[in-house]
Amino acid sequence: MQKIKMKKICYLFFSAFLIFSCGNEIKNKNPKVEVEHGTEIPKTDQQTETKEEIQNKTPEEASQFTLESLLGFWVGNFVPDNGEEDKTLIIDDGYIWDRTNKITISIDKITDKFVMGHSIVAGNDRPFRGTIEKLNNPDRYLFQVKEPGNNKYDGEFSFTFSEDENKLIGKWTAYKNIEIKNRKYMLNPKKFTYNPDIMLEDSKRYMDWNKKIKTKQRMEFEDNEFEEWIASEFSTATHLIYQVNASKKLLAKSDVENLKKGDLTIIRNCIYARHGYSFKNRPLRVFFDAQTWYIPVHSNIKNDFTDIEKQNIQLLLKYEKNAAEYYDSFGRG
After folding, report:
1. Is residue 4 in some structural domain?
2. pTM of the model
């Protein structure tokens, strides 16, 4: 009896939701919410330990330089190089992407002649290994490392390090003829710490150029004559994404029911960004790469969510799906 009663309540809620929604909604028969691999909530009630912090020893922490001082994360921009700088992607209304990605190089093991580690960029977490050569300059080292080669985006890195600069500076070349075969980078040592208090910075607007949403437009002329037409535009987000923190506060229906699909998408994916998730989705990657606090360090974070985040992800996905179903462009009523 209780189950039947709950079903009736859910049915009445859903019916009321549709009745009071704005009139500019257009039904989408195939609503879909994109959830990247490695961010899914495990289908189990079993508690898993959250990674509070990944400790990284950086050169600043070492009282005297040793090769072991280089262990840890090095972060910076992965920029097109060698004539490929002109492959900028112009999206719409001045929104462009110069094909730069944020990259993290993790040096995991090092000796006087050998190095092992992995690179994290654009959703790819790839191991590498190679050699170290001490150059004539006593504080300068040359690294030549290679990824395995069994992934489309594998390649080889060549970079130098000097104590004075405290940076990894070098180039990368893909084995295969991909869109951007050559890149350059200048990386700084960084620590990654999960911080649920981090809020988004207003540094780059979000635009999902992979999908267009449709809205019904209506204009009144004279003598109560109206004209209606269907308009299309890219999905975007509003200023509300800078006010909601889904890692800190348990969200209620009232917090999300009037948000655009773009708002819901960014608020949900901001949870993943706080955990250092490396995004494959290009529009999301461009948006979060512009956040100064964002460090891509993981391709799989599904066991890292707090209980608050798990509940909020499920709530946000529910409303994202409904927004996708009705192509909500300008917010709910």
Report:
1. no
2. 0.79
